[in-house]
Amino acid sequence: MKSMWGIGAASGYTRLAAAALLAAMAAGCASPSEGVLVPVSAAAPPGAAQVDMLAATTRQRSADPGVVFNGERGDAVSFEEIAVSIPPNRAVGSVQWPRPGAADPSRDFAAVSLTALSPRDVAAWVGRHAAKSGRVLVFVHGYNTRFESSVFNFAQFVHDMGTDAAPVLFSWPSRGRLIDYNYDRESANFSRSDLASLLSTAAKSPNVKDIVVVAHSMGAWLTVEALRQIALEHGRVPAKISNLILASPDLDIDVFRRQVAEMGPDRPLITIFVSRHDRALALSSLIAGGVTRVGAVDLTRPENVAELESAPGIVVLDLSALQTSDRLNHSKFATSPDVVRLLGDRLIAGQQIGAADIGAGAAAQAVGNVVAAPIVLFTGVLGN
To answer: pLDDT tens digits, residue range 126-139?
Structure first.
């Protein structure tokens, strides 16, 4: 049995527990309604906010104007400028879903406008929106995510962080169905060259000084593969890509080690959010033959902590003890107000998280009882 991250054959309990999650995940991963991206005509009320984003997608364009892009694979990458209105008086980390064709900006998230862009317009959009801060935030969603889910969830994330980075969504062809795990996985592979191209284009803009990439779940596989591809083709990851944040990454640790090594020494700082109680990754582990995913590593095991501490460099934040509204424990990075603010104040601002950011007491618990603190900091690196 391998040591680091506690990899090995899944126990019978884990297999049964993961299988029992199917019904709960079917209800908890996707958006509650489809066809909600029809732009509203009603004016936003006082106190409402607006997020303007660029969406790059390898999905197929839909004939339904409320869907915009479906879960099938497109012939080429498409670009869309999207404005989302966010209602006032809402809890941080929450999305108020509208009914199809009946969004009310006073209480719902609502599409304000959608404008198709040509590939030649992309560099200008990035440069224009990054001109003030020089910073770009690229988000890559995970498995079982429809297009409208990726748009509204990213808008929530951007707004709640309060960052001034130009928001760019990369949405790949997920069907948004629990049973399509393998289809989604192949769609992630299908999309990696397009994500690599998008990141390279952003890095070439003279107005862009810094790029932070946040990838969730299966999107972490796609993102790390895209960065690896850039490094292999060009000799290194562009220096402007300073931070890579992997939230609940659905990654085999052995593959991840190899991917990181092949990025070379000139790679971004990597921050990983993990939770050993991640119910979605329990199912992924079952599908993957019982191999623990990076995002579900158990850092209560002293051997895992020792191995991590012996290689300083990568930052791992254990959110296992953090309580949020996410019943699957798979999206704590976006649903916890504390984590969202931490991301906005530090990582998206191009800075590294340290013990002072989460409290020295929390960091001090790393080798002892990690459950005593809601967020526990570990530092280390996967060797070259």
So the answer is: 999 998 889 999 99
